[in-house]
């Protein structure tokens, strides 16, 4: 550790040494353990040092011999801890550097016992070090300059003791009131210290592993990776819940090493530490095909990669068999997931050169994959909930996205798996999930960052509630709420949800969430995003669409020059900023009231009752079978299914034009959603959902439906041109008069071919019959009111049963 001021640091170091020596004086004569040859810990330390190119001498000493600069000294306070652990052996290898000139790097292993390893981490946390995990194992991760404030334990005792000594000395020299300790040491420096070294430590069973770099170069990650692999190859730790290996073919071997996979895996753990609020930690085991002997770390599953085209799940299973062809350590191994990093690019990223797709294979029996491994005389079974295939060229976002599919969701994926679903669209009907874009990891957010996929965004509040990391707060009309950004929330916090008053179906609602671009794995831009959530009744899943802003630019440019949809609301208080969106037929207006960036981004919002002026409008949306014929429901996510977060997919869009040619709708050239007709209200561009546009009563307006996106899809995927079908659609015209009375007329629907534009006419066309529309009203789907629905259903069922019984008696 280092203090924030150099004199403070030196004095603290000297004092630490004196205090610790006084504590340990009765223990110095303790017996050393017998030396019975090379210990396992010594061998692991030596092999890790060798892989780093360090001297292979391993120093063995007792924990009581820790010097003042080593974190292990904290285990010697309080005295009862010293009595328990002072004789535990530490095995240390270094790069040959020195503490004096801050050139030292070192690694260390201690066998503390099961309880001791837990106490070790607890003691570090008590002393103010940052609690984290490394490769899914409980641990500590600190970088140079990280602050340690108001610590307890030995560090807290020494800091308070030193402040007391300084205060006493000043009083003796200057008197009680002349000079205070605050005049010599800044108040914040009295409570805080800085980390002088990069540090990664973790536990595994009875062992504690430490990697440290005092040079400031950040090499603690490389040191930790070498120590981890040496421990893995010596089987110190049991197999974790996540198995990671590389696999290729004879003609396309892996070009990356297991070290690269280690870094990706740890980055995924760091991501989920933020995204899942500590609810997800993956305990990894890494398999290295050639051990420590070289860089040919991937397993070969056959002569030709082309043989595995469209057989990703079989490839993954065969890679596992290859990895354990000599036998597994147990007859039965149970895993949450197996991650296979395959050679070459993914089809999604490079269709010309890729053979395999990045995806997550779901188990065929809805529960687990069962893979038999080992020779005939030593057969074992491996059970895993998911087989994940990622390209070795994939960024961390791709890893995090596919791991997301292996995590629990209370909503079913593909009708049978309790796993987190994509939030982008496939071309087939089983996967038309809507579009959240870069606002969610399970949409396009896995690609965010520069380089690409280096800084994936958080999942949306919808996905986090599905995973049960957050819960819904049912919003009330005309009430203000403060939203903490998704990035800065904690487990158990809430997602603000508002009922759709036009339906009795509780699967239709709206979500408002705040997003922070400055947080770890931050959003593309700070602001508030509103989502419309619908329901695909034919396949039983939610459709989630983010709503674009009503004024200003709807699209922005961010990391890596990527174009993204801007937040629904932003820049409260600025003239012309998008701070509200009114939905006339819901009689609701979503509003941003204020924003606060003092402690991360937060926003004050409300949904207000809204009485619209007299307006007319049209609503149009897809109906019937999708344009692409249904394929067999897959047992994997992703893959070569005419899909992808940024892939154009079949879709229809509603447009409006007034007599002056002013336009409301998506501009396909600029990507902006235009609202040029004065006084208009519009849904924005939605995927697989009904779009609507209202204009003031008396406006001469005509509506148009476009299938431009379907033609874009066919240009990108010409193999579908022979099977694509016209998209059927429904069309409704609506009016809201000066009294708020809503009427609607069902117009003649139809179908539209790819690339076609269809003139829909307008609300004044002959033959339209407007009828009054009655809706359930707001709040009928809130949990506290759903019992009414159940009661009415029960009464209805009882009436039907009574009627049947009466007929039978006749």
Radius of gyration: 32 Å
Classify the helix fraction into a percent range.
10-25%
Put simply, the count of helices is: 14
Strand segment tally: 44
Structural class by sheet pairing and helices: alpha+beta
Spans where pLDDT lies below 50 across 5 or more residues: 1-34
What does the overall shape look like?
Answer: globular
Mean of residue pLDDT? 88
Quick overview of this protein structure:
With 810 residues, the chain is an alpha+beta fold. Among the domains are: 2-233, no CATH class; 615-772, no CATH class; 784-810.
Outline the structure in words.
This protein is α+β, with helices and mostly antiparallel strands and 810 residues long. Among the domains are: 2-233, no CATH class; 615-772, no CATH class; 784-810. It is built from 14 helices and 44 strands. The strands form 9 sheets. Strands 11, 12, 13, 14, 15, 16, 17 and 33 form an 8-stranded mixed beta sheet that branches. It has a 7-stranded antiparallel beta sheet with strand order 2-3-4-10-9-6-5, sandwiched between helices. Strands 32, 37, 38, 40, 41, 42 and 44 form a 7-stranded antiparallel beta sheet that branches. A hairpin with a 5-residue loop joins strand 40 and strand 41 (742-746). Helix 2 (40-51) crosses helix 8 and helix 9 crosses helix 11. Residues 1-34 have low confidence and may be disordered.
């Amino acid at each position: 550790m280092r203090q924030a001021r150099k004199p403070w640091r030196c004095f603290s170091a000297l004092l630490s040494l004196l205090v610790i020596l006084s504590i340990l004086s009765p223990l110095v004569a303790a017996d050393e353990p017998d030396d019975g040859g090379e210990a396992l810990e010594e061998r692991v330390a030596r092999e890790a040092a060798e892989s780093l190119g360090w001297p292979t001498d391993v120093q063995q000493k007792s924990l009581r011999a820790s010097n003042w600069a080593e974190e292990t000294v904290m285990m010697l306070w309080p005295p009862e801890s010293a009595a328990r652990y002072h004789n535990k052996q530490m095995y240390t290898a270094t790069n040959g550097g020195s503490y004096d000139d801050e050139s030292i790097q070192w690694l260390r292993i201690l066998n503390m016992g099961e309880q001791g390893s837990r106490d070790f981490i607890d003691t570090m946390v008590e002393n103010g070090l940052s609690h984290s995990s490394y490769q899914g194992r409980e641990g500590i991760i600190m970088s140079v300059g990280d602050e340690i404030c108001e610590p307890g334990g030995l560090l807290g005792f020494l800091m308070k003791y030193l402040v007391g000594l300084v205060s006493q000395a000043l009083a003796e020299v200057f008197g009680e009131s002349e000079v205070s300790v605050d005049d010599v040491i800044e108040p914040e420096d009295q409570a805080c210290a800085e980390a002088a070294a990069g540090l990664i430590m973790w536990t595994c069973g009875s062992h504690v592993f430490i990697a440290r770099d005092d040079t400031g170069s950040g090499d603690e990650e490389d040191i930790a990776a070498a120590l981890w692999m040496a421990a893995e190859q010596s089987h110190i730790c049991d197999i974790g819940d996540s198995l990671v290996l590389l696999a290729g073919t004879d003609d396309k071997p892996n070009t990356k090493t297991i070290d690269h996979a280690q870094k990706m895996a740890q980055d995924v753990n760091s991501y989920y530490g933020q995204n899942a609020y500590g609810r997800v930690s993956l305990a990894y085991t890494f398999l290295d095909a050639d051990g420590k002997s070289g860089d040919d770390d991937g397993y070969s599953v056959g002569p030709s990669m082309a043989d595995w085209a469209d057989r990703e799940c079989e490839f993954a299973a065969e890679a596992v068999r290859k990895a354990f062809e000599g036998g597994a350590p147990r007859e039965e191994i149970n895993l949450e997931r197996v991650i296979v990093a395959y050679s070459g690019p993914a089809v999604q990223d490079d269709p010309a050169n890729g053979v395999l797709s990045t995806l997550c294979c779901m188990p065929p029996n809805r529960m687990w994959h069962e893979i038999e491994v080992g020779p005939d005389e030593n057969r074992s079974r491996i059970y895993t909930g998911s087989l994940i295939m990622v390209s070795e060229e994939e960024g961390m976002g791709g890893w995090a996205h596919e791991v997301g599919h292996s995590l629990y969701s209370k909503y079913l994926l593909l009708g049978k798996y309790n796993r987190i679903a994509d939030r982008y669209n496939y071309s087939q009907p089983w996967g038309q999930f809507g579009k959240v874009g870069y606002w969610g990891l399970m949409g396009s957010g896995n690609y965010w960052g520069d380089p690409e996929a280096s800084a994936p965004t958080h999942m949306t509040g919808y996905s986090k509630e599905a995973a049960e990391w957050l819960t819904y707060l049912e919003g009330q009309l005309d009430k203000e709420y403060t939203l903490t950004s998704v990035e800065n929330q904690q487990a158990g916090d809430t997602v603000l949800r508002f009922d759709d008053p036009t339906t009795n179906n509780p699967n239709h609602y709206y979500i408002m969430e705040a997003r922070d671009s400055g947080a770890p794995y931050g959003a593309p831009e700070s602001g508030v995003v509103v989502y419309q959530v619908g329901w695909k009744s034919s396949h039983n899943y939610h459709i989630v669409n983010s709503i674009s802003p009503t004024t200003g630019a709807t699209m922005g440019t961010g990391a890596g020059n990527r174009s993204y949809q801007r937040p629904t609301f932003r820049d409260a208080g600025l003239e012309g900023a998008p701070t509200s969106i009114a939905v006339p037929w819901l009689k609701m207006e979503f509003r941003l009231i204020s924003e606060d960036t003092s402690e991360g981004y937060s926003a004050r919002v409300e949904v207000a009752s809204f009485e619209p002026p007299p307006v007319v409008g049209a609503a149009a949306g897809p109906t019937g079978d999708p344009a692409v014929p249904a394929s067999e429901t897959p047992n994997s996510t992703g893959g070569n299914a005419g899909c992808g977060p940024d892939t154009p997919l079949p879709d229809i869009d509603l447009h409006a034009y007034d007599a002056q040619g002013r336009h409301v709708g998506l501009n396909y050239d600029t990507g902006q959603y235009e609202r040029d007709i004065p006084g208009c209200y519009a849904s924005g561009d939605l995927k697989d959902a009904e779009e609507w546009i209202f204009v003031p009563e008396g406006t001469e307006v005509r509506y148009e439906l476009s299938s431009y996106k379907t033609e874009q899809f066919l240009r990108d995927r010409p193999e579908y041109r022979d099977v694509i079908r016209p998209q059927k659609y429904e069309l409704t015209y609506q009016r809201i008069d000066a009294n708020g009375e809503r009427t609607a007329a069902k117009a003649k629907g139809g179908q539209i071919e790819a690339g076609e534009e269809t003139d829909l006419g307008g609300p004044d066309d002959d033959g339209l019959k407007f009828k009054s529309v009655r809706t359930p009203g707001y709040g009928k789907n809130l949990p506290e009111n759903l019992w009414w629905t159940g009661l009415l259903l029960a009464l209805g069922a009882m009436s039907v049963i009574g009627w049947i019984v009466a007929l039978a008696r006749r």
